[in-house]
Amino acid sequence: MNFNCLRYSRATMLKSTFNPLFCELFPKSKFPKLTPHVITNAFTSCTPHVRQNVSTKHTIDLAPTSAYIHLPFCRKRCHYCDFPIVALGSASTEIDDDPRVINYIQLLCREINAMKVNINDKMPLETVFFGGGTPSLVPAQLVLLVLEALSGKFGVSEDAEISMEMDPGTFDARKMEEMMKLGVNRVSLGVQAFQEKLLRACGRAHGVEEVNESIGIVKSCGVENWSIDLISSLPHQTTDMWEETLRLAIDAQPTHVSVYDLQIEQGTKFGTQYTPGEFPLPSETQSAEFYKMASRMLSDANYNHYEISSYSKSGYECKHNSTYWKNKPFYGFGLGSASFVGGLRFSRPKKVNEYMKFVQDLENGLLNCSGNDQIGIKDTAMDVVMLSLRTSLGLDLKSFEESFGSSIVSSLLETYKPYVESGHVVCLDEKRRAIGEGDLNTCLLQDENNQERKVAYIRLTDPEGFLLSNELISLAFEVMDSYDFCSPLQEAA
Length: 493
Prior knowledge:
38% of the residues lie in helices and 16% in strands. It is built from 18 helices and 17 strands. The longest helix has 17 residues.
């Protein structure tokens, strides 16, 4: 699953420990809605007073090398889904001549072609992610049009990771081979569960038989890099069901597994039927046990738990999603998609008619990213802490200190000291060796005496620290919210 297409804000993230991220990576105020006369230089010369990448300096000067493409078509809307989609009907599998699909693809290509890009900064794309919706419903010849538009506008690296979300029952071997010929080399298979009862309860358009068929197709066609997406904490889901789902997923031998905890969103069918934590949904304790079970079983099967919701075999981490975790810039195209370009994040309209007007305004030169939605240094720091602590690599304190000063790093270490003692947080030296509780006290004393910092990284433990990530990230937010940020040069002065 690609995170660009998932609803997200800091508040949303802190509702749940391991909920899925990103349709809007940050609060709505930081994804300004693009309107005429507010957006003239969207992809050329934005001011430097907006959110920058703190893990790599001066992100505002970097050209994106990743693109997310939103293909919103589905056979039907799942009961938990609040993504921007267009439901074509449960029987829809071949949509070659559907005018809704053809018109949308043409509009999408117009948006790509209308982008204003500084030719001196343009870089070939290293990752492309087709998300949705159900991209595997879209005919290969239409996907080709999008790839040609991207290639003509930016270029696409020969070894680019090109991912596509595919749902069981929406493709056969012929279509899989057609997609591979276009360059699709990574598949994200939306299985969600291996029980017929749970799939029906979620409103999924496929059943277990189609799940098994689709796994067979992916493997027989020789797709080396593929993921299975699963959802835990579904209505009436038991521990035995979840254990079976994990076991069958492992038996299928994908190179990547994504595990998401169900989120009940307003406006969805589940949102009107259920209350989180109340039967037939699992309790918070049961949901935590599901998470621990996934961590244990997948780790035992040699999957690396590299991000809160993501597991992979060695070398098969999703390169595209890593763009988000590393806070690197990226393009987004299509209905409701989000971009991070020139230091500014913004999202496109979620309704088709509004998106059509957006593309027309973009073509007419009426859009630009300047305005009053600039983001300060405090929000930047919060973003980096939040994103970094969701990964197994954790927070790079040296980079953080270079961007925000040493005082805030010392405050964070002091705040997390009790959680180092409880085993929820690990401090690491430059060689990523764990620093014990006693050594941490010495390190903190050295910091006070302006000696060289010995703690180079902090990360959350798996699974206990990840399960407490809400609270731990909230604590960091509290520290930063009360902190008077200044640049390292100002701090030294």
